[in-house]
Each structure stands twice: as structure tokens, then as C-alpha cells.
């Protein structure tokens, strides 16, 4: 009786070989990661001396300066690339531990509706303006989410769904830093000019400024109760990251299906994720923190770790910014960024005056 010969089993990879591969990988990444860590530490030190300056801003500025004034050794590139994506995404996961759903609900239903209007209206308006300017769909989506939700973290989340070009991601992050930084002196000045009290000014800052660190800087400058209110409103916008990414992921999958594609060239035959895994981790951290089971010391430590990771990632992204790139992309992304900032700020201010 004929018996088919069983297929030979693949021999397990020896542990020594796995350890060797891991060691080689670590050795490859170590030089670039070490540089990112040094710059992140430097950025944190600057914020200790000048608390109004964001560590993320310092890190990305250092990255831009380094890229455009010297030639980085090639052996640094793998570690820098690792910091720009995996470390950035880990920082976003840890960001979830800074959110408590109860604090956001305590803003009241009116302000929660305002936050939703800021995110939805900001994204929709930015995409429409970008289309009118003739900017590519991916670039305008990156700017729309970065300016309407939570800056560089939102840009990274969108990149995780649509796999944007590196130049588009770097441009969006640079615009977030530039325009968010410009808002730091503008918001307190305008708030005083139109007679907003501390709470109203804080809510406006939290609803209109791009990065959490930039909001903290403005809240500290406003004084009083403004800082606490500003951070809670901003974190409410951050919480919108998950549902927005789910919508973008669903639209992306539908577009590929409609075009009869399976993205096999980019993803090995797999459709893009409905929600990136690191966004799932972000939501999980929010849920865990909201349950009240995380000790305050852990929350504080996670906050420092998150800042270090994001600062390292910002330096890595900064090293991808070449001044020649801005000449190549032209003035249109800057116009879009300015328009998006105005739209988001106007929606936020209108909402605060209406329900604040």
C-alpha cells in the first residue's frame, strides 16, 4: 500500500543562532539609538531649565540642525529609523496612561460636543482646503489629523494606516511644530485682548493648540486654573485618536476593495489594519488608567518615559528634514497648515464662548 512520504519538518532554529541574530540587531541599532537618547536627555534638561519650552520642540530642532549642518555616519541610520517609528508608536501607547475618561466627562456634555466638533470640523475643513490647494490626499490627511487631534502622535497614527511617504510625514510633523509653537505667545495675548477668564482661555488653548506640550506651555503662562482645564480639554481631543483612525482605516480598506486591489505589493497580500496595533495599545492604556488601578508613581514614570520616547522620535524625524525639501514641497503645505490652525482655533473659541 502506497504511503506518501511525510514532508520533512523544518528544524527549529537553535537558541544560540536566535541569540546571535538578536545581538547583531541590537549592535546595529545601538549607535543611532544612543544618539537619540542623548538628544532626548538634552531636550529634557532644557525643559527643566526653561519649563515653557517643549522637549519635543528642542529635539526636532536639534535633529533639523544636525541634518542640515553635518553628514551623519551611515551606521547611525538604522537606530534613528527605529526611533522614528517603533519608539514613536510606543510613546503613543504610553500617552494613553495620561488620560482618565472620567476627567474628560467631567467637562460636561456641552464641552464634549465642542471637542468632537473641533476634531471633525477641523479634519473636514483641512481636507477640503487642501483639495482646493491641489495638495495630495495623503499629505492633507496627515496635516488634518495632526492639527485637529494631537500633533505628531496623530501624524504617526495616520501613517500607520495609510503608509505615507517619508517626506509627507516629516513635512506634517515639521508644520505641527512650527505652527503649534507660534500659538504659544498668540493664545495668551488674544485671550487677554478679548477678555477671556482663566478657565475660558485654558479651554480655548486645549481645544486649539496641536501638541500636549505646547498646551502645557500656554496653560502655565495663563496661570490660575487654566493649566488643568487646558490639559483636560486637550486630552479629550487626544482620545478622539482611536475613533478617527478606525474611520480612516475603514475608508482605506473600502477604497482598496473598490479598486480591486489587495495591497499585496506593500503589505504581503494583507489589507491595511482597521486600527493600528499601537492605537489599540493606546486605548488599552486609557482603559487601565480609567479603572484607577495604576499607582500614581507608575503614571508619573510613564509620563517621563513617554516624553523621552517622543523626544527621541522627534529628533529622528528632524534628521529627515532637509531645507531643500521645503523648496521642493513649496508654499502650499504652509498655507494649508495656517488655514487649519485658524479653522481649529475658530471652532474651539466659538465653542468655548457658547458653552464655556
Q: Can you tell me about this structure?
A:
The chain is an all-alpha fold and 356 residues long. Helix 9 runs parallel beside helix 11 and helix 9 runs antiparallel to helix 17. Mean pLDDT is 85; it is low at 262-268. It has helices at residues 15-49, 55-69, 77-95, 101-105, 109-133, 137-150, 152-162, 166-193, 198-208, 212-222, 226-239, 241-258, 264-267, 277-290, 296-318, 323-329, 332-355. It is built from 17 helices and no strands.
Structural class: mainly alpha
Q: Which range best describes the helical content: under 10%, 10-25%, 25-40%, 40-55%, 55-70% or over 70%?
A: over 70%
Rg value: 22 Å
Biggest sheet overview: none
Number of helices: 17
* Proportion of beta-strand residues: under 5%
Q: What is the multimeric organization of the chains shown?
A: single chain
Terminal Cα separation, in Å? 84 Å
Which overall shape is indicated by the principal axes computed on the Cα atoms?
A: globular
Number of strands: 0
H/E series = HHHHHHHHHHHHHHHHH
> In terms of per-residue confidence, which ranges show pLDDT below 50 for 5 or more consecutive residues?
262-268
Average pLDDT across residues?
85
Amino acid at each position: 500500500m502506497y504511503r506518501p512520504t511525510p514532508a520533512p519538518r523544518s528544524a527549529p532554529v537553535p537558541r544560540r543562532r536566535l541569540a546571535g541574530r538578536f545581538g547583531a540587531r541590537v549592535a546595529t541599532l545601538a549607535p543611532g539609538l544612543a544618539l537619540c537618547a542623548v538628544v532626548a536627555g538634552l531636550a529634557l534638561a532644557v525643559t527643566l531649565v526653561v519649563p515653557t519650552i517643549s522637549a519635543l520642540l528642542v529635539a526636532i530642532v536639534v535633529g533639523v540642525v544636525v541634518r542640515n549642518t553635518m553628514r551623519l555616519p551611515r551606521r547611525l541610520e538604522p537606530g534613528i529609523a527605529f526611533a522614528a517609528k517603533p519608539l514613536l508608536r510606543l510613546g503613543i501607547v504610553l500617552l494613553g496612561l495620561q488620560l482618565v475618561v472620567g476627567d474628560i466627562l467631567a467637562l460636561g456634555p456641552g464641552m464634549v460636543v465642542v471637542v468632537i466638533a473641533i476634531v471633525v470640523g477641523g479634519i473636514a475643513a483641512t481636507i477640503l482646503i487642501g483639495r482646493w490647494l491641489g495638495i495630495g490626499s495623503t499629505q492633507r490627511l496627515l496635516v488634518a489629523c495632526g492639527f485637529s487631534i494631537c500633533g505628531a502622535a496623530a501624524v504617526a497614527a495616520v501613517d500607520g494606516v495609510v503608509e505615507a511617504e517619508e517626506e509627507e510625514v516629516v513635512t506634517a510633523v515639521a508644520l505641527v511644530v512650527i505652527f503649534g509653537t507660534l500659538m504659544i505667545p498668540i493664545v495668551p495675548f488674544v485671550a487677554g485682548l478679548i477678555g477671556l477668564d482663566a478657565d475660558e482661555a485654558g479651554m480655548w488653548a486645549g481645544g486649539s493648540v496641536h501638541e500636549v506640550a505646547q498646551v502645557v506651555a500656554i496653560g502655565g503662562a495663563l496661570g490660575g486654573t487654566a493649566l488643568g482645564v487646558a490639559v483636560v480639554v486637550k486630552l479629550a481631543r487626544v482620545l478622539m485618536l482611536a475613533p478617527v483612525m478606525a474611520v480612516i482605516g475603514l475608508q482605506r480598506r473600502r477604497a482598496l476593495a473598490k479598486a480591486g486591489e489587495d495591497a499585496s505589493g506593500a503589505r504581503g497580500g494583507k489589507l491595511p489594519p482597521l486600527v493600528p496595533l499601537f492605537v489599540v495599545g493606546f486605548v488599552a492604556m486609557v482603559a487601565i488608567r480609567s479603572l484607577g488601578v495604576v499607582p500614581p508613581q507608575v503614571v508619573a514614570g510613564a509620563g517621563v518615559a513617554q516624553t523621552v520616547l517622543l523626544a527621541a522620535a522627534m529628533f529622528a524625524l528632524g534628521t529627515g528634514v532637509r531645507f531643500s525639501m521645503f523648496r521642493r514641497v513649496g508654499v502650499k503645505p504652509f498655507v494649508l497648515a495656517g488655514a487649519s490652525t485658524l479653522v481649529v482655533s475658530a471652532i474651539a473659541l466659538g465653542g468655548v464662548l457658547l458653552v464655556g
